[in-house]
Amino acid sequence: MVVLTSTALEQITLPVAPKPNTYFSGTPVINLAQPGLETLLVKACEEFGFFKVTNHGIPVELMARLEAEVVKFFSLPQAEKDRAGTANPFGYGNKTIGRNGDIGWVEYLLLDVTSKSMSHTSLAFLQEPSASSLRSALNDYVSAMRKLVREILELMAEGLRIQPRDILSKLVMDEESDSMLRLNHYPPCPHLQGPDCSLTGFGEHTDPQIISVLRSNNTSGLQISLRDGSWVTVPPDQDSFFINVGDSLQVLTNGRFRSVKHRVLANGLKSRVSMIYFGGPTSGEKLAPLPLLMGEGEQSLYREFTWWEYKSSAYRTRLADNRLGQFKR
């Protein structure tokens, strides 16, 4: 595995380390093979904005194949990784996250996975023969993610008792929908001493999109913020997927669903690899609370705006900023 240079350590703020070997036991688990799960799913989105999906039908071999390709990529010499292009926003990033000063103990590959993605200049390296196995694994994984996202969003609509069933899923299934895949590598940090030492891998934030689907290896590090503001560590599960409610879904439900604030801590012992699929709407999609979810006399908490407007605004902010604040009524 690749280890980031020690100079980065001086620039990264050390958060309070969690207690060693303690995990949050309250993560909602949604078994997709379980009848009547729609009510449980809605409850999880209302209380946590976060849940784990099991019995999802995606082969473990497919997840493991992409992980192996991701590990292979991040194990390349630095010059080879740099050929993927500096993340702007798509491409390879190292320590710097975004354009506004956020940094972390992480290197990543951010990919545009819309129907036009393979022609994007920052992804030109994927067209090379040497990248054929990575390209194949990416295509298969993204195809599986689209199906999973559609299923989950349609189950949400059923749980919310709104029609048509694809009222939410159609926003991310359009050919021009703005979807991305982020591949993150949090290297072991040899400068930290002790198993309970941690530092910021990816700072606290919410996801701007409608929904996010995360899968990681069996290394811990993911934390979510509960409603009381406390941070808890989520136990890793490499065979399941973790779902985040995004800011856009919070708007569509007029705050009934809340986007979950989360972060990742790195440590000195194990390398963490994660793959996150972000399902977003088309650039011109207008975002506002769905009238079907508004009670009699209920006021909209947000003014109407387009996804492009919100995405552009999010890119101008720091990770921890309240991105939805300026869009409230």
Automatic annotation (TrEMBL):
<keyword id="KW-0560">Oxidoreductase</keyword>
<dbReference type="InterPro" id="IPR044861">
    <property type="entry name" value="IPNS-like_FE2OG_OXY"/>
</dbReference>
<dbReference type="InterPro" id="IPR026992">
    <property type="entry name" value="DIOX_N"/>
</dbReference>
<dbReference type="Pfam" id="PF03171">
    <property type="entry name" value="2OG-FeII_Oxy"/>
</dbReference>
<protein>
    <recommendedName>
        <fullName>gibberellin 2beta-dioxygenase</fullName>
        <ecNumber>1.14.11.13</ecNumber>
    </recommendedName>
</protein>
<comment type="similarity">
    <text>Belongs to the iron/ascorbate-dependent oxidoreductase family. GA2OX subfamily.</text>
</comment>
<dbReference type="InterPro" id="IPR005123">
    <property type="entry name" value="Oxoglu/Fe-dep_dioxygenase_dom"/>
</dbReference>
<keyword id="KW-0223">Dioxygenase</keyword>
<dbReference type="InterPro" id="IPR027443">
    <property type="entry name" value="IPNS-like_sf"/>
</dbReference>
<dbReference type="GO" id="GO:0046872">
    <property type="term" value="F:metal ion binding"/>
</dbReference>
<feature type="domain" description="Fe2OG dioxygenase">
    <location>
        <begin position="176"/>
        <end position="281"/>
    </location>
</feature>
<keyword id="KW-0408">Iron</keyword>
<dbReference type="Pfam" id="PF14226">
    <property type="entry name" value="DIOX_N"/>
</dbReference>
<keyword id="KW-0479">Metal-binding</keyword>
<dbReference type="InterPro" id="IPR050231">
    <property type="entry name" value="Iron_ascorbate_oxido_reductase"/>
</dbReference>
<dbReference type="GO" id="GO:0045543">
    <property type="term" value="F:gibberellin 2-beta-dioxygenase activity"/>
</dbReference>
